[in-house]
Amino acid sequence: MSHLLAIDQGTTSSRAIVYDASFRPVASAQKEFRQFFPSPGLVEHDALEIWNSVVETSREALAKAGVDASALAGIGITNQRETIIVWDRATGQPIHPAIVWQDRRTAEFLASLNEAGPLIREKTGLLLDPYFSASKLRWILNRVPGALQRAGCGELAAGTVDSWLIYKLTGGKRHITDPTNACRTMLFNLHSGAWDEELCGLFGIPVAVLPEIVATSGDLGTTDAGILGAAVPIRSAVGDQQGALFGQLCDQPGMIKCTYGTGCFLLAFTGTAPVPSRHRLLTTVAWRIAGEPLQYALEGSVFMGGAAIQWLRDGLGIIATAPEVNELAASVPDSGGVVLVPAFTGLGAPYWDSNARGTLLGMTRGTTRAHIARATLEGIACQVADVVTAMRKDSGFPISTLRVDGGACASDLLMQTQADLLGCDVERPANIESTARGAALLAGLAAGLWQKTGDPAFAIERRFAPQWSGAVRSSKLQIWSRAVERATQWESNT
Ligand code: ADP
Hints:
- About 35% of the residues lie in helices and about 20% in strands.
- It has helices at about 45-65, 105-110, 115-125, 135-145, 145-150, 160-170, 180, 195-205, 225-230, 240-245, 305-315, 325-330, 370-395, 410-420, 435-445, 470-485, 490-494; strands spanning about 5-10, 15-20, 25-30, 45, 70-80, 85-90, 100, 155-160, 175, 190, 195, 210-215, 235-240, 255-260, 265-270, 280-285, 295-300, 340, 360, 400-405, 425-430, 460-465.
- The longest helix has 27 residues, at about 370-395.
- Adenosine-5'-diphosphate binds near residues 261, 262, 307, 326 and 407.
């Protein structure tokens, strides 16, 4: 009983990773699945295809590792958040394709709820946006004939991807979810830790259709023996961003993780009280370990992170591969006064300006592509710094450390710039697969493989210490905020 299986069910692919008892990855498997775009703004998945991809990758990873399912101490699940599935409890068949978090079909309905915005924000910590599950669930229940009535009398089950996978894994025995997933539905009351009847009423959702809320790490059921060849205890379920926060061992107030992928995704651990945001961040659950209170976090996302580097490659063609940005940017001592605000698709937290557009400022006759490359890395780091500043102001905690993961954290120059701009250490772990690692650690905790006070082989590969003086830092951030002003509300000004 010395291995763990982490299932990482993402937006475009499912992965399974087998970990040994020291949380070292032993083998993994990955499978992409189809994305459906029925019309502009709509994004759907086939929930059964997701399920099949999870079974296949789990079997493949176990086979590659040479580990029998009977030797597993547990399974940990981490998943794309907010995506909603509704299925028939009797047959286990979905009644509609999964509606994915990116789907915007419910924007109009949510606009009609504007007056309830402050109430929703106070109860759920979320901003009124189609991103979250409640309006999507309402859409399915109202669109599929008879669904609302069948939901009310308990014939249908609804849930986020964790809930769906656990239902299937347990052969339909458990219909549960964890608070990190529940808190993204817009139906979960952050303060009570339970479904909120008033919000369910507002969205017209019968509570009977919702899963039972259990712990993030604990006893979440046992798999049907036919699926992996033995009955395996499910020990954790955690939303992907919270999985990364736990995987980075950010469990003290003031610790932040940032994932530098296509966008940048930040979570700041804040402890046992939910911190309301005055700077347009989201308040969210960090996790709940069985027998312990809920832990909370503040969340903020930047839309264009590594994608800005892809634009240098694909849009401008000034680099051939993403890693080339580093050499090019390092060939000049600074950006030569050039500032890029990568608001290509608007600005995320803390601005939330969908009319902002990408802005390249401060060019002179001496400007070269190297300055633009450098300004791009700085633009990514400045956006992250803005979210961290909002986190610091909201929480009142000094920021002690930023722990990083995601593809673009491979850039030493980006990480050094980030440390310089924040004035705090940036730590890059040896294993940057934080999300799956978080699910494995949470499962391992429930299985008794480690104690939270112990050291589960977490190692920092490199620590970037800030080198700029306070004066340089504030002058850089001042120039940045002038540039952001020029980028905001551009679309409506034209
Ligand atoms: P996602 O999960 O969102 O697809 P990844 O975590 O795989 O993203 O990260 C991919 C991003 O990282 C790309 O946008 C790419 O531009 C950037 N990237 C990858 N390698 C490097 C590198 N060595 N230096 C800088 N950026 C990089």
